[in-house]
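Journal club side-thread
Mid-discussion, someone asked how the predicted structure for our own chain would compare to the paper's figures. Pasting it here so we can look after the session.
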Amino acid sequence: MSRKYFGTDGIRGLVGEAPITPDFVMRLGYAAGKVLASGRSGTSRPTVLIGKDTRISGYMLEAALEAGFSAAGVDVMLAGPMPTPAIAYLTRALRLSAGVVISASHNPFQDNGIKFFSEHGTKLPDAVELEIEAALDQPMSCVSSEKLGRAKRLDDANGRYVEFCKSTFPNELDLHGMKLVVDCAHGAAYNIAPHVFHELGAEVIAIGNKPDGFNINLKHGATAPAAMAEAVRAHGADLGIALDGDADRLIMCDANGRLYNGDELLYLMVMDRLATGPVAGAVGTLMTNMAVEVALKQKGIGFARAKVGDRYVLEVMKENGWMLGGEGSGHLLCLDKHTTGDGIISALQVLSALKRAGKSLADCTKDLVIFPQALVNVRVTPGFDWTKNAAMVAEKEAVERELGDSGRVLIRASGTEPLIRVMVEAREEDAAQSMARRIADKMAA
């Protein structure tokens, strides 16, 4: 069955337009509550934890969700502004029935969304999401008054999560002597991330830590890392750490302001693990730079590609039994540290790797020579299927033969616009550009 509301990362959209409206979100809470309650044995009622990022719409959607859960007879714990991975952790640690995050991640403040975590701190299985969608199609009612759910605040949520993050950093190491710029994107980690790094000994310059409900991700954070790089140079810091609005993405920079994306940070983490023992493999996506695949295979490490989206990276990691995976956008997963992608914990893994190696980011990644990528977008009519364009298919095959093991071609349809994206990676930038244009020209012909 196909999903009607759930995408790859929950339900997301423009606030005030379906489905991100208070009436729908209340019905969503009710439907999710009924599904949770139906699968519960014994007399204890289910309890869910609700967290949110710093968007102004979070207040409205939190109240709507709370009402829906209460009407279904489900108790609610409210954590307030918290990173998405914090809700995953706290749901598992407190033995709750589910966790809910109100966030649109790296999107601007006008958007918002709802995502769920299971009792194990993982994304909900497809089957459960389909159950919730089926329940949404049923009329909403209300349990009797004596069965209504209660709501209460989880007052120590921040402290619990700070301690969890610190527990993933090696006991024998600390961050004394390091000056770090930490950009919180005016998002959910604004009152958490600076404390984690400071309590481990670092001197912290926090930026993007003054949310006002409207400035989340605005010129700050992982999607706008120039602010971090500028602050690092201005303060003479050793490193910069940029998170996104819900703190599940990570981009870093060195003392020179040179940026390191998720592909490079994943490679660094794999190399750090390899220094202390065997690493079976790592997972990237269709967009992961080929240099990562080449470098890992040269060292005898397996590499697999998943569809774009941390949900799919996690699926392939579990299928292979591998611990490390990620995306160039900064979603990084270390399954021996957390059940989901976590920007703060990923940064701590990078910092511990640098401490162990006694080297800089540049030195630790010098063997990874990123392949130039050329991307050409071609506007098409809605529903256009490039695989039925014989000239384009033939040109793609010709380019792949020319590249051999020294590059690759990826053609995919945009998920949001009537565009076909043609991406070519090659060892030389001019070759990548010309080959991408050759394929795109065949589509336009």
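Post-session note: Residues 22 and 61 are 6 Å apart (CA to CA).
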